[in-house]
Amino acid sequence: MHPRHIPRIVLSFFLFIFLFGGCSRVDHKQSALDPKGLVAQSQYDIFILSVWITIFLFCAVGGCLLYVLLKYRAKNQEEAMEIPSQSHGNSKIESFLILASTVILVILAVPTLQGIVLMNKVPDPDDEATLTRLNLDREQIEGAITVNVTGKRYFWVFEYPQFGIVTANELVFPVSKAIRINLTSEDVIHSFWLPKLAGKMDLMPGHENFMWFIADQEKILSRTDRDGNPYKTDVPTAMPAVFDGSMRDAVFAKQDFNATFEPVGGVFYGQCAEFCGNSHAYMSFRGLAQTDEDFGLWVERLQTAQNPNLKPSKWNSSSEYPKGSIVIAKDESLIDENSEREYRAVTDVKKGNEPSFSSGAWEKLHSDDYEIGKTIFESAQCGQCHALDRTGIGSKGPNLTLFGLRTSLAAGWMRNDRPNLIKWLQNSQDIKFGNLMWNGEGVDDKHGVRSFQPIPIDEVNDSPLKKEEKRLLNEEKKVRVNQLVTYLLEQS
Amino acid sequence: MATESVKYVAPETDTKTSSKVFPRPGQNTTGIVNWLTTIDHKKIGLMYGLASLSFLLIGGLEALLIRTQLWSHNMEVLSNRQYNQMFTMHGTTMVFLVIMPMSAAFFNYLMPLQIGARDVAFPRMNTLSLWCFIAGGIILNLSWFFTGGAPAIGWFGYAPLTDNRFAEVLMDMGPDFWIFSLQVLGIASLLASFNFITTIINMRAPGMTMMRMPLFTWMTLFVSFLLILALPAIAIALAELMFDRSYGTNFFDFLEGGKPHLWQHLFWIFGHPEVYILILPAMGIVSEIIPVFSRKPLFGYGLIVFSGAIIGFMGFAVWSHHMFTTGMGIVATSAFSILTMLIAIPTGVKIFNWIGTMWGGRIRFDPPMLFALGFITMFMIGGFTGIMHSSVPIDAQHQDTYFVVAHFHYVLIGGALFGLFAGFYFWLPKITGKMMNKSLGKFVFTLMFIGFNLTFFPMHYLGMIGQPRRTHTYNLGHGFETWNQIATIGSFILGIGVFIGFLQFVHSFCSKKLKPAGKNPWDARTLEWTLSSPVKEHNFARTPIIKARDQAWENNYGPPENHSEKVPLDDHGVHMPDRSWTPLLSGIGLLTMVLGLLFHLSLDQSGEVVRDYTVAIVGGVIFILGVILWAVEGGGGYHLFPKEEDE
């Protein structure tokens, strides 16, 4: 093979891959080639248009080049020394080519401008023509949900101002409504990228940006099997409810971080797309699509959990408690004489009947591990950064309300289950170096947050007694971290 | 030195230096002093070339580490901070220490030869430019050894990530090294640019009208103008950032009312012309090579010159397309989107004209031509993906993904680096006087072409399926592994190709076995090919009188009226300037001053911040001393009397 053939062969090979790659619908978690919403679809359509335009241009110009190289190559030494006609220009051809390229650009420019308007503005609900063109209903726009997204190193705060609730790292949204996203940042620049729904927009500190998206239920329900045949799933399979934990169960059942991804249609993968520091790669998030009904129930659930007026109060000897009431009262058996726990009334309870298990009128609301975990949460001062109420962007760490319903941990990086959460709490820096969750390292080895990390046992230098002592201590630490994990995962 | 019958004795009056401290080394200087004090544009070009090739190896090594880290999910070859330092240093090195100075190497060596000049207009300034470039490279790479290590802020250094408030290592000095290095490199580029512009405007041989200039010289002129217009923007931005970091000002601190957007605008007003600063020299080189290996004049010379000017001009009007996702609003994004699309037209014109040049020619596939053809095809792909990015909705998905990484590597490796390698294969025989092995050249091209495409083509797809750039790792289950592995294998093939090419270049200087090149081995067209290889110290024995555009070609094949003539020999000979220590002295002063500024902060025993500017002031004084000596050291020089053919 002559060396000059090589570039052509390589090029055609890559052109083939490009064509194939552009059109195939492999279901990648975070793929922009698999749009599931109006805005992403428009971006995808313009992209595909541009791919065809450039493939055409590449074939046309590349074809010309190939023709020239083949036709006018010097076939032997004598030919290489010939002097061809020294022509040096043809203004007609040149003007024609300039005009032709301008026309091609116009073909791309028109949908581009339309796309820019679509991305930046939610259509006016009174504009019938646009709504019809986009195949949208009036209610989908009028019932739009607003979410204020705040980027922080290295997680996301999602506030729902219409409902007075706040959550982190998992954006729950109704599938049938337009979602307006207001973006800002508290520290450096981040970028909110949800490829299957709506491209990306930066979160700039001291500045508010806007984007919007709307998911497409039809697309979420439609799947392709292994042979590439399309089929439909039902709503509970494609979009399990978040509020009762079925989403978490479905994701855990289907999606293993150690295996190839199997899609749960309602789960969308997002990622910070602007370099923001050490842990930038770990700053991902999820979008969870819900039916209107399930979304409503989730909002209600979160509102209840974050309403300070609905928190259980201390037992009061002068009150009567109807069946099902929840109070906080002493339980000396838990840790010491000062420990408290939550009780639920089994029957209607009269005045002065102090909660205890002996009377039979009260029962434990949570396990002992949960209650001890709660005291650990407090004594380790987790609450300094992590709120279990409506505190939004003011809190330093992710909001942990209903944490047990979350599918992911560490800003979408790992599955939110017991083993992972234990590893995370023992030393989050091992998993996500550079994250800002304080692990007390080097500052205060006595601090509560240090009490989960196992002590390394030096097999050579430690005496057997010392080793045994350390092993016991590590066992104790393991118990403690398990209790804290129980508390966190039962936030549901 | 061959001298004609000496009928003239050089005047003694202007040869003696008035400085006794650093006397100008004269005609017979050899060895290391000769290289340190040279003011010869050819030697400076060589040093630029060698230094930039060395930095290419460093930047390439960083790239290979990056690719190794991305081989599979959750790899731990580099920690995330090390990875972030790697891509910051890789980007900064490749842009400022490789492509730009490598272009400057060609400008320096060839531009005066192409226009028939003795040297550039300000030879000592040229030397200072070289030392500033070397100093900038040293400052940047010194950062590895001090607090915080190399900068981990990206080559774009977006505020407020560069703010002390967000430093991830206490007293991180990396960004400071980056700031000062870029400032010093900016000085190097400015000195060179003013020099080249003055040279091209004033020192062309008689008859070398602007529209007879070789395309490469035209591109030198455009790039020089782009540099002097673009660099002030980043100089201001860097100065502001330095004040923010060192003296507590609030240009970019949003909590005090600063604007992170401001940095992005200032950076990209420089940064986008910078893209054309990187690519236009390669376009110039390719515009020289394709006519030679097609044995035809450039098709549409005027149009290519004009489109180069248009590209340069419009390059200043499209910077915000780097900021489509920062929230500029509908009107601004639309305007910048359309302007960006328009810039595709003059770029397309160049490609059409290169194909038009080959049309009807006799095409030879020697290594320079292979690289030039590689340039056209790869740059075309890079250009096409560029058109995609000009469309805001597409960019909303592509921005900051591997698709963009693929795009600009197609432009900067497939484009700029292939163009520069084409230039090496084309002009090194002129510079060394020896022909390089063609088969090895073709082998290098094959390795680089295959390796390059294997590395960067899959990145288009990776970006589309969701891999963000500047992430040190990715999670399992995204399906990124296979394509990343192909890319990593490709990058090593590319690396081996570049390294063999580097060895071949160096070898061609040292080897005594290679075939001599003669004056015009490629039967090339422009003026430098009328000189002997390697070019004599004095360039032209007698200034040529230019009669046509492709003078070397016309001398061989053109009608007699197009043959060049020579300015008659006078009794003055060729005046050669003496070498000079002052540029090196000024450069050392500048380096000392920068190091003094970098290390001026310290903590005393009670923990108070102490600012000590002694070293910086000493450096400044050395710099000023250098400039004063420069001004007063006198003309000096000596005269050569080469025979007419001795050039």
What keywords describe this structure?
A: 492 residues; alpha+beta; Immunoglobulin-like; five-stranded mixed beta sheet; elongated; B: 647 residues; Cytochrome C Oxidase, Chain A; 18 helices; 6 strands; 61% helix; globular; disordered N terminus
Short account of what is shown:
The complex is a heterodimer of chains A (492) and B (647). With 492 residues, chain A is α+β, with helices and mostly antiparallel strands. In chain A, 38% of the residues lie in helices and 17% in strands.
Could you explain the architecture of this structure?
The complex is a heterodimer of chains A (about 500) and B (about 650). With about 500 residues, chain A is α+β, with helices and mostly antiparallel strands. Among the domains of chain A are: about 5-80 and about 90-120, Helix Hairpins; about 140-305, Sandwich (Immunoglobulin-like); about 315-365, no CATH class. In chain A, about 40% of the residues lie in helices and about 15% in strands. In chain A, strands 3-2-1-5-8 form a 5-stranded mixed sheet. A 5-stranded mixed sheet of chain A has the order 4-12-11-6-7. Chain B is mainly alpha-helical. In chain B, α6 runs parallel beside α8 (about 300-315), α7 runs parallel beside α10 and α7 runs antiparallel to α11. Chain B has 18 helices and 6 strands. In chain B, the strands form 3 sheets. In chain B, strands 1-2 form a two-stranded antiparallel ribbon. Chain B is globular. The chains are: A alpha+beta (about 500), B mainly alpha (about 650).
Gyration radius from CA atoms of chain A, angstroms? 30 Å
Question: Could you tell me the mean pLDDT of chain A?
Answer: 85
Shape category of chain A? elongated
Structural class of chain B: mainly alpha
Give the terminus-to-terminus CA distance of chain B. 11 Å
Give the topology.
The complex is a heterodimer of chains A (492) and B (647).
Chain A (H helix, E strand, L loop, with lengths): L4 H19 L14 H34 L5 H5 L9 H30 L7 H7 L3 H5 L2 E8 L2 E6 L4 E4 L1 E5 L4 E7 L4 E4 L1 H4 L1 E4 L5 E5 L3 H5 E3 L5 E3 L2 H4 L7 H9 L12 E6 L11 E7 L1 H15 L6 E2 L11 E5 L9 E6 L16 E3 L3 H12 L28 E2 L4 E2 L2 H9 L1 H4 L32 H26 L3
Parallel strand pairs in A: 1-5, 4-12, 13-14
Antiparallel strand pairs in A: 1-2, 2-3, 5-8, 6-7, 6-11, 9-10, 11-12, 14-15, 15-16, 17-18
Chain B lengths: L30 H7 L3 H29 L10 H35 L8 H20 L31 H29 L12 H33 L12 H35 L6 H14 L15 H13 L1 H15 L8 H24 L1 H7 L3 H31 L5 H27 L16 H30 L33 E2 L5 H7 L7 E2 L7 E3 L5 H17 L2 E3 L5 E3 L2 H19 L5 E3 L7
Antiparallel strand pairs in B: 1-2, 3-6, 4-5
